[in-house]
Amino acid sequence: MTITKIEEHKADWSEVEGVWGMAIDMDVCSGCQACVAACAMENNIAFVGEEDSGYGRALHWIRVEHTWEGEYPEVHSTPFQPISCQQCGDAPCEPVCPVFASVHSQAEDINLQVYNRCVGTRYCANNCPYVARTFNHRDYERPDPLANQLNPDVTVRRRGIMEKCTFCIQRIHKGNEKAKLEGRSVQDGDVIPACAQACPADAIVFGRLDDPQSAVSQMSAQGRAFKLMEDMNTKPRITYLTEEKSYGRNG
Amino acid sequence: MAVMANSNQLHGKGHVMEPDHEAHLREEHLMLDPRPRSELNAMVMESMTTTSWKFWAVAGFLALVVAVCLGYYWYLMIRDGMGIAGINKPVYWGIFLVNTVFWIGISHAGTFVSALLKVFKAEYRRPFTRAAELMTTFGLVQAGLSIFMHMGRVWLFYWLFPYPNERGLWPNFHSPLAWDFLAINTYLLSSTMYLTMPLIPDFAMARDRSTGWRKSLYRVLAMGFRGTEAEWRHLRFAMNLFAYAILPVMFSVHTIVSWDFAAAMRPGWSSTIFGPYFVIGALQSGLSAVSMVLIVVRSTMKNMKYFIRPEHLDALGKLMLIISMSWGYFFFNDYIVQWYNGDKYTDLLLHFHEAGPVGYMWFLMIIFNVVIPWATLWNKKIRRNPTALFIIGFLVNVAMWFERYIIIPTSLSINRFPFTYQFYKPGVEIPLSFGTLALFILLYMLATRILPIVPVWEVHEGQAAHSIKKFGKEPVVTISDLE
Questions:
Q1: Closest CA to B467 of B457, B455, B454, B480
Q2: Is residue A115 less than 8 Å (CB to CB) from chain B?
Q3: What is the pTM of this model?
Q4: Nearest alpha-carbon partner for A110 in A182, A169, A35
């Protein structure tokens, strides 16, 4: 049996420019969860309901971590820390997927989940040191008005597959197209993911890491900057900023 | 008078020592207790065809359990999604993977017992190799089913196969899971072939001694075996080849299963000893399962008390003890290496194993896997007692299931982000686990009605080679040169 191969039409990877990164200033994050809500609306994230959410099945791609210990008034707490997929340069989730559903995109150079290739082994999620991946345990209902706010640029996922933060890849492409039409390169402000857009304290800053003048590059170069779990050598794209003696820290 | 009687007794005992010793040898060893070939054949045929109503009652009950627990609940899970199972955000893998590893472990010992004992020419293996190999095949069926249950979109399972397709997409050969899938398939195919080859002469025997539908069935299964010299030569050559070739396959399967965990960068999983530790764990549960199956076969099937004797339970008990000791060593090794590395989260995890909500599993695992086998199996009387050995085998299997439970869902509850910690409550996994167990027993029961559970020609071959010769007054077991 001979297999006739479909003629290959490879995308021109150079059409998307920019090395994208994010900086999150934990010292100004107020823990308001606006990023979580904005992300859910932008990326068609299903609402799983109280019971499933309480059992750890919430589908949010970003979470605001805040832990504390002790009794009042001796409460020791950590600063608010929004955590999403770190878009690792050397991602542990990629090599373990048996069907190449978790892949590194060549155009945007970020880590992507190919929803229609995913068979739901959930190995990627086990190997993610940041616990950033969420699994669609069911087909969650979208009561009538909710279906009207679905973002047409983002796939609606079904049960049995993994999903995670994409750095709002649909916005990266839109920003790129806009800059291309105007005949210039992509600058700060062309691409703003939903979480950064919604952040009232501007704690989340997104932009090009290959542009030393961009806000994210400037922030990442600060002395307060660190990468999450740098010792795992995952080369994350998100930089966190915090000072040991920052205002409001009592830990 | 009393003294006289005593001395008489002593004298008499001394006198009849020799024949007693010989009779004892014959009673003890199947190989020294020969019966004519026709009688052996008739006994095995009878064991296959004698079926009481109890058999069908149990089979019917198991079929019901399979239909409800396996069929209905799996249907529900495919229809509604994994939500009705117990997995959640940090515990992405649950009892389905526990069952997969457990059943692969069970399937291990079948081939181990058969192939390894054949390679080392252990004569006592002859009557029970097939009973053990059947376990391999049916255990792997359960392992495969469990892996499919575990998948979020099981209807796309064939994407794991490296099949040529128009999109030019292949499985990711970097992934341990892709290798796992291939290794299980390889093992299933090769162990089924290894099971089938020595069955051919027995099928031919059954074909010549049955009527009706059985005759037509065995005629197909025997593949026209006539017993010519060339046929035997080919069969022996292939069996020998497979016995050697299947051992590395067997080791590869469970080490590849262990990579699923060892290759991941998680506290408690990233352990370099996991390969041999998993192989030994597989043998630990598998050998216990072999002895359990043999005890059930022996006590429920006709004529089996002749073929499967305390000597076989004794030998298996010794193997179980050795494997239990090895398991204890590897467990200690794994634990101490993880403990020594001083990683904060590994330390937290090790404490969570013992003192967490399922800490009782950890202690029961140690007791059932190490304390009970070591305390009992050194004793010949316990090893030869079917009831005692059955209970020990059962406890070891419970402990090995616990061990996998501790490695998978319990370890997944703990990660590097305390904010996401979550416990695991099994949901539909429980009926599905019972379903796989019921399917395993059911398949085995039905197989005993169709397949000669004892390889008659191998037993006969062994008996023909062994004899008891008298050198002076001493009965000596002699053996002619065996291939």
A1: B480
A2: no
A3: 0.91
A4: A169
CATH class of the domain at B43-479:
mainly alpha
- A126–B87 CB contact, under 8 Å: no
Any CB–CB contact under 8 A between A173 and chain B?
no
Q: How far is B88 from chain A (nearest CA, A)?
A: 5
Q: What is the pLDDT of residues B214-253, one digit of tens each?
A: 889 999 998 989 889 999 999 999 998 988 988 889 889 8
**Rounded to an integer, what distance in angstroms lies between the CA atom of residue B241 and that of residue B230?**
16
B417, A83: Cβ pair inside 8 Å?
yes
Q: What is the DSSP string of B163-182?
A: ---TT-----TT-HHHHHHH
Residue type at position A68: W
The shortest C-alpha distance from A189 to chain B (Å) reads 32
Q: Are B61 and B429 in contact (CB under 8 A)?
A: no
Residues from chain B contacting residue A134 (CB–CB below 8 Å): 89
Say which of A96, A100, A130 has its CB closest to residue B176: A96
* Average pLDDT of every residue of chain B: 88
- Which residue, B39, B64, B33, B49, is CA-closest to B438? B64
Domain-by-domain residue ranges, chain B? Answer: 43-479
Nearest to B177 among A56, A96, A229 (CB): A96
Beta-carbon separation of A57 and B83 below 8 A: yes
A242 touches chain B (CB under 8 A): no
Q: Which residues of A touch B88 (CB under 8 A)?
A: 55-57, 137
The Cα-based distances of A125 to A63, A94, A210 in angstroms read 15, 10, 29
Burial tier of A229 (Cβ tally within 10 Å: 0-12, 13-18, 19+): middle
Residues of A within 8 A of B171 (CB-CB) are 98-100
Say whether the peptide bond before residue A73 is cis (omega within 30 degrees of 0): yes
What is residue B273's three-state secondary structure?
A: coil
In angstroms, the CA B380 to CA B393 distance is 16
Q: Which fold has domain A13-241?
A: Alpha-Beta Plaits (3.30.70)
Residues in chain B: 483
**pLDDT, position B265:** 87
Q: Collect all residues with Cβ–Cβ distance below 8 Å to B74 and sequence separation of at least 6.
A: B149, B432, B435
Q: Say yes or no: B169 contacts chain A, CB-CB below 8 A.
A: yes
Q: What residue of B is the nearest CA neighbor of A1?
A: B164
Partner residue opposite A100 with nearest CB, options B165, B166, B172: B172
Q: What is the tens place of the pLDDT at every residue in B414-455? A: 998 989 999 999 989 999 999 999 999 999 999 999 999 899
Q: How far apart are the first and last CA of chain A?
A: 68
Query: Counting beta carbons within 10 angstroms of the beta carbon of residue A73, is it exposed (0 to 12), middle (13 to 18) or buried (19 or more)?
Result: exposed
CA distance B423 to B352: 11
Domain boundaries, chain A: 13-241
- Residue A180 sits at the chain B interface (C-beta within 8 Å): no
Please tell me which residue of chain A has the smallest CA distance to B93.
Answer: A122
